[in-house]
Write a structure and sequence with these properties.
The protein is 60% helix and 7% strand. It has 13 helices and seven strands. The strands form three sheets. Strands 6-3-7 form a three-stranded antiparallel beta sheet. A two-stranded antiparallel sheet has the order 1-2. A two-stranded antiparallel ribbon has the order 4-5. A hairpin with a 3-residue loop joins strand 4 and strand 5. Helix 3 packs across helix 5 and helix 7 crosses helix 10. The relative contact order is 0.11. The N terminus is likely disordered.
Amino acid sequence: MKIKYLVLALTLAFVNYSCSLFYVAKQGVYQMKLLAGAEPIELALRRINLPKEPRAKLILISKVREFSQKNLKLVADKNYKNVNLSWHNIIHNVSASEKLAFKPYLWWFPIIGAVPYKGYFDEKDAQAEIKRLKSLGLDTLKRRVGGYSTLGYFSDPVWPTMLEMRDEALAELIIHELAHATVYIANQTPFNETFANFVGKTGARMFYVDKFGENSEEVRRLDKFYQHEKEYNKFFSDLYVKLDNIYKKNISQDEKKSAQQKILLDAQARYELTPISKEFIIADWSRINNAYLLAFKAYNYDEAVFADLFKLVNYDFKRFLAEVAAHSQGPDPFLSLRQYINNTGTYEL
């Protein structure tokens, strides 16, 4: 019997390995097409027929990259130097969770191991994966990807849909992705995304202060947006905690489901009465499920630890990045970094 189970396990592992290799190969073809059609932004700006709006966005990206490298000490020698203006694919991210527990579905890949999401260059492939995950009885989420980083393995280019973003959002996205290329802790998605979120927002504000001044209308508008975003994050963090408390109770699945539905209905009613509902419109509340909340949590886990560290190093980005890289090891990098902050008290040169 043991040999039988061993053979079954090896067979499943081989199938999973083969499927992941096929997926990687297919996405790799799209990645190569994206890279092959790219040209330096400087060359694109020389085009006489380049419309005014994308031209302005490309100039903004170049300025953000320069600022990020000089003032934020981010690695910007490869990413977003090029642009593929002929690329019209929309990249989609797929994730899933159990319906009555915040337990993510994991995909396994050679080298990088298990990850809680999967990206697709072809929406049909993403839809097929969503269908498969739903057949397993899971909550699912499919969302568009604004940008991504290959962590320095390739020279990640800009693509057209990025040029449709608001200036402030585009600046934050570029800095967010450059942060990934600068500091990345393996197998720690919530830490990496929350870190990049903090760097993206903090860096974007610094860029706008440098460009327009602390008391400018542009900076005040950005601060207002970030305040609304903070309120949005608190609303859904509280919702996550409420549901998580229900899921962890020693009650039946039916009782959990009933309590879950009441909490979600109450959350929808309360959210629609808040001022932030006009800034962050949720057209389809059926999307607010465990998969959505897990993805939200992955990007908004504990920004306070990074804010505290940034203050501790007297708002010096070079020191900040060095401390994050040096003190975020171990199974819980948030805890490791928090312990370092608490034990240090004051920064020593």
